[in-house]
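explain this:

___
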Amino acid sequence: MDLERLIWEHVRNHPEFAMEDLAKLLYQGALGMDHLLADRDTFLADFSREWEALDSLAFPGEPLLEPVPPDGRVARLNLRPAKAAGISLTMLGPMLADQPRRHGSWAEFMGLWGAAVTLARDGRIPFPPDELVARGNALESGRQPPGHSPLYREINRPAYRLLHDVTQHQVR
């Protein structure tokens, strides 16, 4: 899947997908969730709390997997459909916590961001190019993992974890 199609897929499937959500998507595609996997015990405890609180019937039709980078290797594993499908916490938690790290680079993320700016300049994605450039500069200077926008969080209630290599997992 190319970057333009990937962005449009997320824009269509997630109401109020904003520039912050694009930053998070591209960051995850390049760097994965290595920052969350640094402390296995904390990851598993946080994941367990979220899993237990999930309403697996909310957001019917939510896909189990959503592509993150254009190469399709990293995916968001949506937790509600996983729980509804009977995937167990005792299997899923360790599988996610112990997966190989992404080992991506900030340069890879900024390369994806630059490609998004080009798409915006060409009018191919629904974001103002000047705002993307400004946000890219802020991201570059701060070098922190971006978060979802407040409105995206409110409407979509994201509940997922990343699979760093979907070809290595059997959760379909």
Q: What stands out?
A: DSSP finds eight helices and three strands in the chain.
